[in-house]
Amino acid sequence: MTGLMAGKRGLILGVANDHSIAWGIAKSLHDHGAELAFTYQGDALGRRVKPLAASLGSDIVIPCDVEDIASVDALFAALDERFTDGIDFVVHAIGFSDKAQLKGRYVDVTSRENFSRTMVISCFSFTEIAQRAAKRMRRGGSMLTLTYGGSTRIMPNYNVMGVAKAALEASVRYLAGDLGPEGIRVNALSAGPMRTLAGAGIADARLMFNHQRAHAPLRRTVTLEEVGGSAVYLLSDLSGGVTGEVHFVDSGYNIISMPRPDVLQA
Ligand code: NAD
Questions:
Q1: Which residue from 174, 186, 173, 167 is spatially nearest to 235, judged by alpha carbons?
Q2: The pLDDT value given to residue 260
């Protein structure tokens, strides 16, 4: 505990279980003194999220399905009753696409319906959350969303999620430009592949793990603690001059161009 986040209150969207990236971030924020509110999607996940939140001393656990804008408004109304003095940060760690379309060629499998649904849940929901969170950040604040390198480079099977992440990263820049004058910073954390529910929805995710381990400069995947630590940096005053950025926490995978010659020749 450093007290880096002492006196700061925030909202975490996207905990499904104790493997969730949002959970890793929540634990690190709690370790550094933050006070947290959580959301959950549906009653089944709520039964998992409530005890996790309680283990970090939080009884603020509110349902929210970002596909339903009334649910988003109800979330903020409920949050106002608990955090009456506003909030200091928000973490958006939400993504969804039809699993059947995260397999095969993007050009073949992508439907209009799932494209729209993926964009609303995985991209536009961050803008809708930011619109509401900004009104509650009276002392300035920091917003963070989660992205993946499939936004700028093609990854087999990542497909429409890559397109949504590209739009999400562009949203980060537009939101940062708009909210900067109010002292609100907006950034994205681009995590390497992690074993989560959402991660398991991508076909051949195992190959992405193996490729990362073989070729990333650090020769390994990243941990929830490492993602959590970088999130604390982006959400705390340590990164006070940083906004509109995509910050990679991926063992350096994003800097490589071709696979290692020794692996190719093996
Ligand atoms: P996860 O399955 O633990 O979390 C995804 C969350 O999104 C779940 O809590 C789920 O309830 C929520 N969600 C989906 N649809 C929703 C809706 N309509 N309303 C409200 N919540 C909804 O998986 P994760 O890997 O922790 O995913 C968190 C974020 O991290 C996602 O944006 C994902 O794209 C991103 N990310 C994941 C990886 C990875 O390898 N796992 C890598 C980089 C980025």
A1: 186
A2: 82
Positions marked catalytic: 148, 158
Instruction: Give the chain's radius of gyration (CA, Å).
Output: 18
Tell me the domain boundaries of the chain. Answer: 9-265
Please give the structure tokens belonging to residue 5: 């986040």
Residues framing ligand 1 (Cβ under 6 A) = 14-16, 20-22, 41, 45, 64-67, 93-96, 121, 146-148, 191, 193-194, 196-199
Domain 9-265, classified CATH 3.30.230.10, yes or no: no
Q: What is the pLDDT of residues 4-21, one digit of tens each?
A: 999 999 999 999 999 999
Q: Angle at the Cα of 134 (from 38 to 198), degrees rounded to 5? A: 40
Q: What is the mean predicted confidence (pLDDT) over 220-231?
A: 98
Which residues does residue 186 pair with via DSSP β-bridges, in sequence order?
Answer: 143
- pTM confidence score: 0.98
User: Coil, strand, or helix at residue 42?
Assistant: coil
